Amino acid sequence: MRPIRSGHAVDALTGAATGLAPGALLVGGPLLGGVVGMPGSALRYVLLSAAVLSGLTAAVAARWPRRVVSLSAAAATRCAATACLLTAVAGWWPSVVVFCTAVVVAAVIGAPALPRHRGTTPWYAGALAGLGAAGAVTGALPDRPGTALAVCGCAGAALLIPAAVGGGGRTAAGTGAVRGVTPGTRGLSASVGAGTTAAVFATQDLHVFRWELVGGSLALSTAVAGGTALGFFTVGAAAASRRRAPSPARPPLLLLALGAAVTACAVAASPWQLTLAFAGVLAVAAGCARSLYAGAVHAGWGMVGAAGGAALWESAGRLVTAGDALVLAALWPVAAAVAWTVRQGRWPGAARHVRHDRKASS
């Protein structure tokens, strides 16, 4: 196969694969529980554990001495393709042992690919498109969620084949961003993961318990949300690219927008309003991650934050109503934005570090 040399094409393909396989697991979770033989909450714990394990593995691998562990971009992409195929295996043989083993092993094998993405606009646009496609496939096969998961896993692996063969024509790594990681940026990444994950789980639960929409309705709603978020994100990225230099106020403003979008999910009065609010969450989360240039350490902290957001949603949901629990989850990114603003006021050099990291990564 002829290798793809366009960096933007490689980013779009790898982003789409990232949205397809994990997106199918996330979107099809409520449907897969009955097929696999696991309660929905237990399946969520498996997915979150796999996500945290993948993020921590990527962070450790990025800090490991290069003379011990050294993977090229093509080799890392092959690892990601193998992880997609393992995801397909989890759909082909729906049993508790096979599903859990395949998902956890896929998370570990696919971890070396996390530091290799450059956090570009095509990558996040592809990820949103892949998530929407995963929702469309799952919605088209509501009675066969395992088949839908297998289709998305194989499609994700197929999208990665050109990059795995040609290596993308470059050595795209996140080391430039990793060197500049600070406690403040770790907190921002964790807050993005927390708010987004709480909104994802809340969207699933609200569809089922507030409006009693089951089957493929949730998946089709995710497909619409993913497509709408892709449009929002593309417009926002085009507007941001017109500015010559990134503003230090951009990350906290995006985090405030994320908190507002999560709150909009909590107060949605109809399914279509919830879908539109969820699209806003996805678009703003992609914009936050793009502005932070989420390398290996950022991705790891984002996944740790995702586990924290899910824990907050599950625990608070037992004490207060679903809407109130989601509002509490929305306070996480808002608090991170306030803390980041205060930190910039006390240590003005933090803003210079962030601008320097973005220039080095571009």
State the main characteristics.
single chain; about 350 residues; mainly alpha; Growth Hormone, Chain: A; 2 domains; disordered C terminus
Present the secondary structure layout.
Blueprint: H1 7-27, H2 29-36, H3 40-63, H4 73-92, H5 96-110, H6 121-140, H7 145-166, H8 175-179, H9 183-209, H10 217-241, H11 250-266, H12 271-292, H13 296-317, H14 322-346, H15 349-361
Helix pairs in contact: 1-2, 1-4, 1-6, 1-7, 3-5, 3-13, 4-5, 4-7, 6-7, 6-10, 6-12, 9-11, 9-12, 9-13, 9-14, 10-12, 11-12, 11-14, 13-14
- Give the tally of β-strands: 0
Cα distance, first to last residue?
Answer: 29 Å
CATH topology of the largest domain: Growth Hormone, Chain: A
Number of helices: 15
Tally of separate domains: 2
Largest sheet: none
Helix content: over 70%
Overall shape: it is globular
Order of helices and strands: HHHHHHHHHHHHHHH
Unreliable residue runs: 168-181, 347-362
Q: Report the sheet-strand fraction.
A: under 5%
Radius of gyration: 19 Å
**CATH class term of the largest domain:** Mainly Alpha
CATH architecture label of the largest domain: Up-down Bundle
Mean pLDDT across all amino acids: 80
| Estimated structural class | mainly alpha
